[in-house]
Amino acid sequence: MRKITPYKTTRNALAVLDNGGRFYNWASKANDSNITSAELGKTVGAFSSQKVKMLFLEIAISDLTEEGKKQIKQSLTDDLKADLSKYPVKYLKPSEAKSKAQTGESAIITGIPRLIDAKTKFTGFIMIPIMVNNVTTFSMIPIYQQYDVYELRDHKTSKEVLIAHSKRARKLPEKTLKCGGILKELKADKKKKSASNLFLETLYYAEITR
């Protein structure tokens, strides 16, 4: 998971995002008031999917005024505007995740994370892809083998949603965070096909500073 410091002003956001891309992106020009996919890719990471780029953009501009967000989105090229519609990002409270979101959707959920001992507190399984003889198959493994698991708690209701954070990354601070990621299924039992819960596979987070 990558920590993001959201842009505080529209001018700063444009200065970073309207960057001309890399040297081989000859069609992109810096400071021309058009943010291309190549320019956004330079900021996010060259091999990020369009879905991940849209998630990054939403959390990066989340501290701007509504007018500021509108200005940034109007600066996107037509293909990126289409991606915004294709890969919408939901803003949710932890208490809303189960009722207002579905597996596969992108979401930014705000709350206070608390690390839990997933190995002893509950048994949850996730599906991971495995390549065998150039064929992709899927295997079920306990979630704690791949992730640190946190309860992201709602300030007002004390309800929580599970978020999964890469074991290779630094532990999350126990303070109010915006966590951005993709909602996925958590299986209660390895043999059951139906999902028992949703969890957020977190890709980005930002600290609340105000």
Blueprint of the fold:
Blueprint: E1 2-3, H1 10-17, H2 37-44, H3 50-60, H4 66-74, H5 78-86, E2 89-92, H6 97-100, E3 106-115, H7 118-121, E4 125-132, E5 135-142, E6 147-153, E7 160-166, E8 177-186, E9 197-207
Helix pairs in contact: 2-3
Can you give a write-up of this model?
The protein has 210 residues and is an alpha/beta fold. It folds into two domains: 2-87, no CATH class; 91-207, OB fold (Dihydrolipoamide Acetyltransferase, E2P). It has seven helices and nine strands. The strands form two sheets. Strands 3-6-7-9-8 form a five-stranded mixed beta barrel. The chain has a two-stranded antiparallel sheet with strand order 4-5. β6 and β7 (160-166) form a beta hairpin. α2 crosses α3 (50-60).
Summary tags:
210 residues, alpha/beta, OB fold (Dihydrolipoamide Acetyltransferase, E2P), 2 domains, 5-stranded mixed barrel, two-stranded antiparallel ribbon, 9 strands, 25% helix
The gist of it:
The protein is of the alpha/beta class. The protein has helices at residues 10-17, 37-44, 50-60, 66-74, 78-86, 97-100, 118-121, and strands at residues 2-3, 89-92, 106-115, 125-132, 135-142, 147-153, 160-166, 177-186, 197-207. The longest helix is centred in the N-terminal third of the chain and has 11 residues, at 50-60.
